[in-house]
Write a structure and sequence with these properties.
The termini are far apart. The chain has an 8-stranded parallel barrel, surrounded by 8 helices. The longest helix has 33 residues, at 295-327. The radius of gyration is 20 Å and the shape is globular. It has 15 helices and 8 strands. It has one domain (5-327): TIM Barrel, CATH 3.20.20. The protein has 328 residues and is α/β, with parallel strands linked by helices. It is 56% helix and 11% strand. The protein has helices at residues 5-10, 22-28, 37-44, 50-64, 70-90, 109-125, 141-152, 165-173, 183-194, 205-219, 234-238, 250-258, 269-273, 284-293, 295-327, and strands at residues 14-18, 32-34, 97-100, 133-138, 157-162, 178-181, 225-228, 245-248.
């Protein structure tokens, strides 16, 4: 019987579910799972997960006591909700879950470090080893420096909202466990900027960006893992077959599971080792210069942080409204 594209992909790449939907994770049985503020906010509004939201709110009330204001309770529940979903996800998957630091802290090194430690402490309180958690941080210069501190403490990090080689190199040089370059969002930017309706998968700017990063890492033997993210179609995914990991939304996992055909390996460390690539070193000045010259990376990083921030504000409002209902 012919193998599906998903079965073949799993033979060369770790498949990760990009969702907060626990039922979807149960369906596709990935090794790892990733979440972000938008995904958690969406999941928190699904009726089947109302009990997770309610239990988190009740736990926050119990922790703070009857004298605490509704705002204080909702705020604490907000801080705990992503971990609550992470704990449910870890009951299903054998590997790691990524839990994101508040996007509003993306340019604050010390606050990001403190939040990363706090997230890990919450998992530890629930019997989860730090080895099973990735702290997800936006790949600003400050975020990368914060992640470097956490990595030295044995707290593993996933640097997200990554759109350029300068961000990727800075992560590798600082010993970051994993990066999530955003394929689809890069494509979105180029389509809008160029006026083109589409790109062939092999010419997709997001695919080319991740390929460049993967080859650079393998050429210079960095341990940082590359996990392509934010896909718009399965063509982007098949062009990155062989990447260390790929985090994929349930709808695209379903497409891959339904499709058959030959899936050749596109990314290969042995081939990358023989490429002629210039080695760069990224300090803050170089990072800022390269970031400033990369209009796409500059705009998409700012847009991503803004989008996650808006999702967090929506989540805070949702929790406050639910608490009022529970305690009304």
């Amino acid at each position: 019987m012919a193998k599906t594209l998903l079965e073949q992909l799993r033979e060369m790449t770790v498949v990760v579910a990009d969702t907060g939907d626990i039922q979807a994770i149960e369906t596709f049985k990935p090794r790892d799972a990733t979440t972000n503020p938008s995904l958690i906010t969406a999941a928190a509004q699904m009726p089947q997960y109302q009990s997770i939201v309610d239990d988190t709110l009740k736990g926050a009330r119990a922790s703070l006591g009857a004298a605490a204001s509704a705002t204080e309770v909702a705020s604490l529940a907000f801080e705990r909700l992503a971990v609550s979903f992470g704990l449910k996800i870890l009951e299903i998957i054998p590997g790691r879950v990524s839990t994101e630091v508040d996007a509003r802290l993306s340019f604050d090194i010390n606050a990001t470090i403190a939040k990363g430690r706090e997230i890990i402490a919450q998992y530890k309180e629930n019997g989860i080893s730090p080895e099973r958690v990735l702290i997800k941080i936006a790949a600003t210069w400050e975020g990368i420096q914060a992640a470097a501190v956490l990595e030295k403490e044995g707290i593993h990090c996933n640097l997200t909202l990554l759109f350029g080689l300068h961000q990727a190199i800075a992560c590798a040089e600082n010993g970051i466990t994993l990066i999530s370059p955003f394929v689809g969002r890069i494509l979105d930017w180029y389509k809008k900027d160029s006026g083109r309706d589409s790109y062939a998968p092999a010419e997709d700017p997001g695919v080319l960006s991740v390929t460049e990063i993967y080859n650079y890492y393998k050429k210079f033997a960095y341990n940082t893992e590359v996990m392509g993210a934010s896909f718009r179609n399965i063509g982007e995914i098949t062009e990155l077959a062989g990447s260390d990991l790929l985090t994929i939304a349930p709808s695209l996992l379903a497409e891959l599971q339904a499709a058959e055909g030959e899936l050749p390996r596109k990314l290969d460390p042995a081939k990358a080792a023989n490429l002629d690539i210039e080695k760069l070193s990224i300090d803050k000045n170089t990072f800022d210069r390269m970031h400033g010259l990369n209009r796409m990376a500059t705009e998409k990083l700012a847009e991503g942080i803004d989008g996650f921030t808006k999702a967090l504000i929506t989540l805070e409002e949702l929790l406050a409204a639910r608490l009022a209902t529970l305690e009304g």
